[in-house]
Every structure is written in structure tokens, then in C-alpha cells.
Model the fold of this input.
Amino acid sequence: MTSETILVTGANGQIGSELVLALRKNYGEDNVIASDIRENDTDSRFEILDITDGNKLHEIIQKNKVTQIYHLAALLSGTSEKNPALAWKINMEGLFNVLENTVQHNISKVFFPSSIAVFGPNSPKINTPQFCNTDPTSIYGISKLAGEGWARYYNLKKNTDIRSVRYPGLISYKTKAGGGTTDYAVDIYFEAKENKKYTCFLEENTYLPMMYMPDAIRGTIDLMEASKNTLTVKDSYNLSAMSFSPKEVCASIQKIIPDFSIDYQPDFRQAIANSWPQSIDASVASADWNWKPQFDLDKMTEDMLKNIVIENV
Ligand code: NAD
Ligand code: SER
Done:
């Protein structure tokens, strides 16, 4: 069995709740410590941690002899736009605390999730390349781009091994999405199953890059386990699986629930979506560490509708 001890921050969220299970399967139940600002009564290997508290992070790392960190804690795009100052504090101070503790405790590897939100109105919209103009207009995108810069700086100047991907919108059924612009693509499945109708906060032809959670978890762990000398990108890898609009996901659901219906009431998140790419080129990730997605829209729809459990029905 491995001698790694892994700390996951923001572990109660959409990604963390599945990533912790996958890491425990690979590294052993006792070797993965989940942490979050919110309590988790069901997890015996859990620490309460507000990531803006660098001293508490230091104590947890020291007490548990942590060797790797998956740093997920952050505010997502919708929530960030409503409270930019808090988003900056959590997304930036949190990352800075992780990086400083990484150097101090000689942490061997860190995972930091970035986002398609680092791109902006002047980035190419279709098949957005790994290296191109990045001019984010959302505070969330600005914080992720700054985070990528910090990762590159620590890797180059402090000899750390911070690895990162620019996740597209992630879709899953175990834990609902937490305040992002791509959340409609999660909510739509829950509403389809429960009420057979959905009011979408984005316009019908808004194309965004998306990915099913099993692909995201596999990709994350594959990147973290890849040999360091194959990794040419020192800040964050583009990652992609599929691209669709609300109208297309509606049509995919209607193949299984024919009387499902959708209407549209775009809100402030439309402007954020309009500033992001419609599809992403992940060829550098494919070349460097064999990235390849397994789920397309219809395969994901089938799996989502099969697995969503509606409580109190
Ligand atoms: P989420 O909102 O579901 O979960 C985030 C977790 O962080 C929550 O459990 C929350 O309680 C916790 N948290 C908030 N403030 C905290 C603090 N101060 N200290 C400690 N924990 C705190 O988000 P997610 O979808 O699981 O995303 C995880 C990471 O992946 C984030 O960094 C996010 O920006 C990134 N990401 C997510 C997506 C996506 O589509 N889900 C896409 C791109 C990037
Ligand atoms: N899914 C995320 C969001 O919408 C993208 O990083 O905020």
C-alpha cells in the first residue's frame, strides 16, 4: 500500500464528494483526509477547515503528515459574481495558503482546478487552444487565471509540483452543482426526472464545453499520477469532452422522457456564459498524458437519468 497521505480541501462539494471516494479506492481509506468549511457527519476521516485559515491548514498537514493536496475549495462563477470580495479572499488567499504550506512542508504534489473561465471575449470561441489570449471578464475567471499564474510561479521558482486542469462545466448526479454558470446542465436532469419540465437560466443556443464527472475524476487522477517529465504545461491543461447547448441537452433528455419540456429565462449568468469558449482543444493534454474522454451527451444523459435519486417521492 502507498505511503501517501492526501488532503482534499472543499471535499463536500460536487467534485470533492466523488474525488474523495476515488482517491480512497486507489490510496486506501485511511490515507485520504477530507476537509471543508462545512461539517460532514458521515465521514470519520474528516477535518473542518476554512482554507483562508493558513494556521489551521498548517496544523492539519503537520498532524496527519500530509504528502499531497487536492485543493478544491473555491467559490464558483455565479456565487463569485454576487460577492467579488469574498470570491477573491477564498479563491486567492486559500490558494496562497496551500502554496506556502506546500513549500514549508515539502508537499510532493498539489492539484489545483482551474476553469474554462480563464478565457474571455478575445479568446478564440471554437476549439480554444491551450495557449491563446486570456482576458476573463468574470471575477471567478480572473481569480482562476491569477491562480494559474501562482502555480506557474511556484513551479518555476520554488520547485513545487502543482498540477492543474481547466475543467469545463461538470455534470454529476451524486452532489448537486455549487453556484456555477454551467449548473443548468446538472439541474435540468434533476428537474426532468422530478417534474418533467425545466426553466433554464441560459438562452437555448448557448454552447459551452461540458464533461461528465466520471471522466473528470479519471482525468484528474491520471494527471496527478503521470510522470512529471512528460508534463510540458506548467500552469493548467485544457481539458475537454463535449460541447452542447440547452436546446441539445433538452433533445437528448426527450429521447428518454418524450414529454419533458423546457423554457428559458436568462439571468446574469448569460453574460458570463457569452464570455466563455464554446468548445476547447485538449490536444496538449492528450499528447502529454493520454487524456481521452469516454462520455458523449447521449451516453451521459442515459447514465444521469438512470442514477438520479429524487428524495421524498
Ligand atoms: P462546489 O461549490 O460544489 O464545492 C466547493 C466546496 O468548497 C464546498 O463544499 C464548500 O463548502 C467549500 N468551501 C467554500 N468556501 C470554503 C472555505 N473558505 N474553506 C474551505 N472550504 C470552502 O464546487 P465544485 O464544483 O466541487 O468545484 C471544486 C473546484 O473545482 C473549485 O475550485 C472550482 O472552481 C473548480 N471547478 C469546478 C467546475 C465545475 O463545473 N464543478 C468547473 C471548473 C472548475
Ligand atoms: N462550472 C464552473 C462554473 O460555472 C466553471 O468553472 O463556475
Remarks:
- The longest helix spans residues 84-104.
- The chain has eleven helices and 14 strands.
- Residues 77 and 291 are 25 Å apart (CA to CA).
